[in-house]
Amino acid sequence: MTFTKGKSEETVVQPDTGRRRFLTSSAVAGLAGASLSLGLAACNKNESAASSAAASGAGGASGGDASAAINWDKYEVHPGKLDTYYAFSSGGHSGDLRIHGLPSGREIRRVPVFNIDCMSGWGITNESRKIIGTRPNGQLNYINGDTHHVHMSYTDGVYDGKYIFVNDKINARVARVRLDTMECDAITQLPNVQGFHGIFPDKRDPLDEKINYTTRVFCGGEFHIPQPNDGRDLNDPKKYFCLFTCVDAKTMQPRWQVKIDGNLDLVASSYDGKLACSNQYNTENGVHYEEMMAAERDACVFFNVARIEAAVKNGKFFHIGNSTVPVVDGTHEANADPKTALTCYVPVPKNPHGVNISPDGKHYACSGKLSPTATVISHELVLKWFDGGLKEPRDTVVAEPEIGLGPLHTGFDGRGFVYTTLFLDSQIVKWDLAAAIKAYQGDKNAKVVVDRIDVHYQPGHGFTSMGETRQPDGQYFISDNKFSKDRYLPVGPLHPDSSQLIDISGEKMVLVGDHPLYPEPHDSIMVRRDIIKTRQIYDLNEFPLAVKTPKENRVERQGKKVTVFLTSQAPTFGLREWTVKKGDEVTIILTNLDKVEDLTHGFAIPFYNISFVVHPQQTQSVTFIADKPGVFWCYCTNFCHALHLEMRSRMIVQA
Ligand code: K7E
Ligand code: CUA
Ligand code: CA
Asked: Which cofactor does it need (predicted)?
């Protein structure tokens, strides 16, 4: 094991040696060690936490706590001042999207997506229920989600501030959040996919010069299932496979799918629009985890977007089950000839996790996870392989440095340095991409690893400011850590996750902020604030149901269906009271006629599971059965006025 001679050995925190000895002796020794040490993460964190806490007083790795030398003013956002960046983070199994300001780390918004949200009424209003989707019995299709990856739409290879795309791993859905209002406006389920994990929008069209913006969203299916998964072929491995899905960014409907060998984990897309790729940790198609770690190498699979779309156009596709989405064959067997291949499987060491493209569009870095390496693949050489100019897919690899234990995710600073999270080492490693290529070519003097910094503890994703665009600014790296014992006041058995801010503008990385997070952000992006332009007030005409003037307040009845047309204007609702009969199906349409920024009203009906908000000039509606007779004070939940408490209406339900 030759990882990190020098630097890391010198700077290793002394009390930590027990953990390190264990890891180095077992983690990369092979299959058993790897699985053992991965499993170790959780039970190991006590030791690691205690030792790192002890270490911070003693200097530790770079940036441990050299607080004397740090210019804290640079990272402080004083009261009344605004942050420099937005960070958009997935919420993991909270099912939402989070928005933080950086460098302060202040949480400024949670956007409900796949979850039910009491604050806004997401999942309660008819409008949100329509987006989430309902079953014939009226119940919501799903009430949970697991968001891992958030990515913004692009124009000219840079974030354009229009949309965020985010995945739901549990129920194989992709959602779009519009950024002018920071609200989810579409959710689509991917057919025949289970465990939808990686997601990345394209950055331009591969053929049409004029289309220099996002029109596709690429989605990687992680769990292989019998196709179709309807109870047949339960134990026939040959019938199990995964799909790579392309969703139209505008209509949010699936355009095409690719049948592949192995699974798909994380996804990246090229700057020229020609390729998308995904790392695979289970090329073995194993059903049990021992089988998934059997092969020494897995792969990073590349998708030739133009060829796939040509194949679809030429009718070279099939369907699975009831789905009408065209599926092309991207398996090894069907793609042996590079000149016609739709896919290229580049072998990379054992169970990789994470693939990211450099801001100049030239290289992909695929992290080893169970191998202490990062594999650097050349974009140009992959295109060359597709042109028949290279013998083996593996010939596209231009570097494979050893960078540390448990490498997962990578960010770039635009100066040629690469920052990779090391889950097992609990570190961020900074390495030099050009030096790694030289070392691979045999240059023994190439200094690949240039810095390391301890994080607390066990990082998953890491990302740089503007790092996934053509305009990385090399200012900050965020390490989203899975554990945080001793970093925050204890709050019961579950500690917050931890987002640590690292200044990467200098030669050495410096830890400058700890921010606790509600579980569990995975991936995030860090976006310059000038890119985001939000609206403060809605357009009344956008809502077909809008109750446009106070005069339109009324109750209409058709048989047992009652519609209440209602307005809000601080501090009153347009109707003082209304009466319905027990058993009526009541729809309340509420338009907020206030035009003042931030003047949001709430509307709650006790004992009826109704609570939602309406922002200035917005219309929302709810429908329910008036099954409980009595008097119900519908009140404004959102503080809006000195007479906010008085802002109520009486719903009378006659027995
Ligand atoms: Cu590494 Cu889902 Cu991107 Cu979690 S994934 S950390
Ligand atoms: Cu309206 Cu409070
Ligand atoms: Ca494997």
From this structure: Cu cation; Ca(2+)
- Whole-number Å distance, alpha carbon 483 to ligand 1 midpoint, is 14
pLDDT in tens, 291-325: 898 999 999 999 999 999 999 999 999 999 999 99
Q: CA 495, CA 498: separation in Å to the nearest integer?
A: 9
**Considering the entire predicted model, what is its pTM?**
0.91
Residues at CB less than 6 angstroms from ligand 2 = 570, 601, 636, 638-641, 644, 647
User: CA–CA separation, 566 vs 67, rounded Å?
Assistant: 57
CA distances from 229 to 61, 187, 193, 194 (A): 50, 22, 9, 10
CATH code for the structural domain at 540-653: 2.60.40.420
Across 259-297, b (16+ Cβ under 10 Å) vs e yields: bbbbbbbbbbbbbbbbbbbbbbbbbbbbeeeeebbebee
| Cα separation, 243 vs 224, whole angstroms | 8
Query: How far apart, in Å, are the Cα atoms of 360 and each of 122, 346, 552, 620?
Result: 40, 21, 57, 45
Q: Give, in order, the Cα–Cα distances in Å from 474 to each of 72, 140, 449, 591.
A: 18, 43, 17, 45
**180 CA distance to ligand 3 middle (Å):** 42
Residue nearest to atom 4 of ligand 1 (CA): 522
Identify the CATH number of the domain defined by range 401-534.
2.130.10.10
Ligand 2 atom closest to residue 639's alpha carbon, by position in its atom list: 2
Supply the residue whose CA is at minimum distance from atom 6 of ligand 1. 460
- Any idea where the domains of the chain sit in the sequence? 401-534, 540-653
